[in-house]
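Quick start: what a row looks like.
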Amino acid sequence: MRGYREFVVRQLIPWIIDFNSIVIVGDVLAYDWILFCDLFENALNVPKNINYIPLDLATMFSMNGLNPDIDREEYAGTLGKIKHVALHDARVIQACYQKIARQ
């Protein structure tokens, strides 16, 4: 979604509040979490149903004995898809998280 921050937040909030509890899982989360919190002006304004402790996929790889620089698409088995499109990237992160969680 593109637009000014206020527009993006107005579009995002109705979708977010449909969920009871949300845990954010990001890849190299130091960048993503800051930008996500900035959507709401700061971390204290993030909707309450979003857990304030996000999970970092690179750390999860490392803690499971995997190279944190591993090819995410290869690990997730999602090769051949469009790369660096937000929805695809989110699905790759989700697939990686689910695979690690099953180990």
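That is the whole record. DSSP finds five helices and two strands in the chain. The first helix runs from residue 5 to 16.
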